[in-house]
TrEMBL record:
This is DUF4351 domain-containing protein. PANTHER family: SLL1691 PROTEIN. Residues 261-319 form the DUF4351 domain. InterPro entries: DUF4351 (IPR025587). Pfam families: DUF4351 (PF14261).
Length: 325
């Protein structure tokens, strides 16, 4: 699979699925902590509070974080900090960051937080679970819970028989990793995992939620995506269920979102081309094509850079520096 197939906001489906099935996530990944909690009392996502302590978010990193207020069985309030590390490569200061977030929560809100991490990388040797230092008169050991999705490869049969939605999440993640250079195999697994949702007899809402996760992470080239949709449409036509067009409705919703993104990109392109013409004069066709090939993120960067352009050479230098074709 090429880089162009990677979605920029890969944390988004994780955040959505954690919000949709948070108790199940805790019971699946951290059953000992889940057993301490009273799930009959509603939990609360503390997004504003988390933003206050995560003031040094790193650009370019891929992770999803959720700060959640829950209640223990004994009636005491406790906060959970759930971190999903999505980045492909291990992060050197990961344990330190887990400690700092925990410390900031206690410092700012006077609340103890149980810090937990879900590691999605493919390095079996990277297993951070504590931050510590030790001096003759002062020492500290901060431990946090971790699960490694890679470890579930050895428990595939258990995943297949589980009715917890996060079994599906883990299977989709693992098969995405394993088929990074096998798009045909990925297509087969994507179809198989989605078919499993129907075979489990899940409610339409659950099928839609889990479908959205699978579809978002198991990216296919356009040609195979078209084949997949055709196969899936035929599959749904064979079912005798009241929500036989679920796949088509999800596809329609996804298409609307992608259409909005494409529309925004076209508008941005047109605006920047007009601005460039005013700044540096008429653009040669090949230069205009280079600008039109830019991603939305690159276009936004160019919209700021062009304010300093005075000649077409400035634009050409910017395009070359940003490695456009």
């Amino acid at each position: 699979m090429t880089e162009e197939l990677q979605r920029a906001d890969n944390d988004s489906p994780w955040k959505e699925i954690l919000e949709a099935y948070f108790p199940q996530a805790m019971q699946f990944f951290f059953p000992q902590t889940a057993a301490l909690l009273n799930w009959e009392r509603p939990h609360e996502f503390l997004d504003k509070e988390f933003q206050q302590i995560a003031r040094e978010a790193e650009l370019g990193r891929r992770y999803a974080d959720k700060l959640v207020k829950v209640w223990q069985i004994d009636g005491e309030e406790v906060w959970l900090l759930i971190h999903v590390e999505i980045q492909a490569k291990p992060e050197d200061n990961f344990a330190e960051r887990m400690f700092l977030y925990n410390l900031r929560i206690f410092d700012k809100f006077a609340k103890p937080a149980i810090s937990l991490a879900i590691l999605c990388d493919a390095d079996s040797t990277w297993r951070p679970n504590q931050y510590s230092y030790n001096y003759p008169d002062c020492s500290l050991v901060f431990q946090f819970g971790t699960v490694k999705l890679l470890d579930y490869q050895n428990h595939w049969t258990e995943l297949e028989t589980s009715d917890n939605p996060f079994a599906t999440v883990v299977m989709a993640h693992l098969k995405t990793q394993q088929t990074s250079k096998q798009p045909g195999e990925r297509k087969n697994w994507k179809f198989s995992l989605i078919r499993r949702l129907y075979e489990q007899g899940l409610a339409e809402r659950d099928i839609r939620n889990l479908y959205r996760f699978i579809d978002w992470v198991m990216i296919l080239p356009k040609a195979l995506e078209a084949e997949f949709w055709q196969d899936f449409k035929l599959f749904e036509q064979e079912l005798t269920m009241p929500y036989i067009t679920t796949g088509e409705r999800i596809g329609y919703e996804r298409g609307k979102e992608e259409g909005k993104q494409e529309g925004k990109q076209e508008q941005t392109q047109a605006l920047i081309l007009r601005q460039l013409q005013r700044r540096v004069g008429n653009l040669p066709d090949e230069v205009r094509q280079q600008v039109q090939n830019l991603s939305l993120e690159q276009l936004e960067a160019l919209s700021e850079a062009l304010l300093d352009f005075s000649a077409i050479a400035d634009l050409l230098n910017w395009l070359q520096a940003n490695q456009t074709a």
